[in-house]
Amino acid sequence: TLLGAMGSIFMAFSISVVLATLMPVQCFQHPNGRWTIHQSMSELCWEGSHHTSMVIAGAVACILPVLFLVAVVYILISFPQKIREGD
Fold first, then answer.
1. What is the C-alpha separation between 24 and 86, in angstroms, rounded?
2. Taking the CA atoms of the chain, what radius of gyration do you get in angstroms?
3. Largest interatomic CA distance in the chain
4. What is the rounded (10 degree) CA torsion for 77, 80, 85, 87?
5. Rounded distance, CA 15 to CA 13, Å?
6. pLDDT tens digits along 25-56
7. Burial 12-38 (b: 16+ CB within 10 A, else e)
8. 3-class secondary structure for 24-48?
């Protein structure tokens, strides 16, 4: 069905969306003791408002994949009951 195809496409892209939204918190430490974002060596982690705004934007962007996961779990749990009821 169209809905199943849309769900499959959304799931295929959700991994890249989640990785992109988690990028600001993927930090690593340099020998000088400073932490930078793994994908952007010039951006210091947890220092300055730019990184904080990136983390907030990433957290907000994670809402969509989480809502999709909640919807899938709800459908999987309610599906057997709907079949029994003939709905």
1. 47
2. 19
3. 65
4. 80
5. 6
6. 889 898 998 899 888 888 888 888 888 898 89
7. eeeeeebeebebbeebeeeeeeeebbe
8. HHCEEECCCCCEEECCCCCCECCCC
Place of tokens 């400073």: 34
User: What does the alpha-carbon distance between residue 20 and residue 76 come to, in Å, rounded to a whole number?
Assistant: 27
Tell me the β-bridge partners of 54.
Answer: none
Neighbours of 57 (CB within 10 A): 12
Provide mean pLDDT across the span 47-72: 86
Place 23 in a pLDDT band, splitting at 50, 70 and 90.
Answer: confident
Q: What is the CA 24 to chain-centroid distance, rounded? A: 12
Runs of H (alpha helix) within 1-87: 2-22, 49-61, 63-85
Q: Summarize the confidence of residues 14-20 as an average pLDDT.
A: 81
Q: Which pTM was predicted?
A: 0.63
Length of the chain measured in residues: 87
Contact present, 58 and 22 (Cβ < 8 Å)? yes
